Fold:
Amino acid sequence: MFTPRFAIWPTLPLDIHFRTESTWRPFPLNQENCRIFSRARQAIWSACIALDLKAGDTVLVPAYHHGSEIEALLLAGLKVKYYEIDGALAPDEATLLPLLDKQVKALYLIHYLGFPQDGAYWRKWCDDRNLLLMEDAAQAFLSTKEEIPVGSHGHVAVFCLYKTYGIPDGGAVISIKPPAPPRLTAETGNWRILKRHLNWVATKRGEVGFLHGLVKPALSWWKRQRDRPHAEFEMGNPDTPPALMTTRLLPKLLNEVTAHKRRRNYQYLLDHLGEMVPRQFVYLPDGACPFAFPIEVENARPFLERLRQKGVLGLLFWINPHPTLPVEEFPRSRFLRERVLALPVHQELTEYDLKRIVSAVQESRTALPAQVAAV
Structure:
């Protein structure tokens, strides 16, 4: 009855406030042209303005996306043309080339779930066509490819710090023309810190996890009633800086072993659930710092509900595309949206926690058989 709860987002240990600050600054935090906003979408908008992209300029963007990045580009006055991804989640060149015209100024490249795309190849592809490369490393902070940090090849690269560490917010950007730092007064972030602490306790104490399981669905329902259509894509004020608690706690959280722990957790889940993993993610490449662990199931929503009842709060990954996407024209992206679930893999999980996640998935799979299909 009293079941611990494990969610996608990294939790925040209670002792973090008493830790010593790390002197280690990973890419892009060690770059002079790095700017940090509250959210990566605000960083995207600000970078577009700094790069003097004009109203009507076009960016080639993947059909498989979150939606907030698309909204930021549109609010910056740009147009978007969607391209399909290939079987490796890379841009499908066959769909890219017909989209090129004089208005196209940039290619938007997403590093999904922290798995690095070939940034060097796409930088050359863009240079050959006089285009900007915009790298979305929102889920790939701390990832590297051939020991080069993901995001190094782009004219612009954005990162979500809070998807790796349990801080309230933090969207970093580097650009060949850095945007001005955000100018608004920072919020405290205390409420979001409290929630991350409670999430950490919920992984240790079944009683708290039980209460979390009761309250979370009610809060989600209440938010859905209040939210405006497509509210999850809204940018907010682009001049918003990171919360004060983000600035204070991030140096205490930065750790050179974070990527190793996430990789270790991913490999453990892969060893036990590998037959359920989409083929693009069955091999963990050197340098990847996974954001989450993907599994592919046919009956995604009831599967998620059974997982929730067992204490695992998975996520139907990017189920809602931006409303401007003609969904039916991009079958591979639609397939992934409807069937790929994300499970926790963050660095605060213990081996005991991972065993519980595996058991929950296997028991849910017995009740609702998962069927894997190549995409």
Summary: The domain at 17-175 is CATH 3.40.640.10 (Aspartate Aminotransferase; domain 2). The radius of gyration is 20 Å.
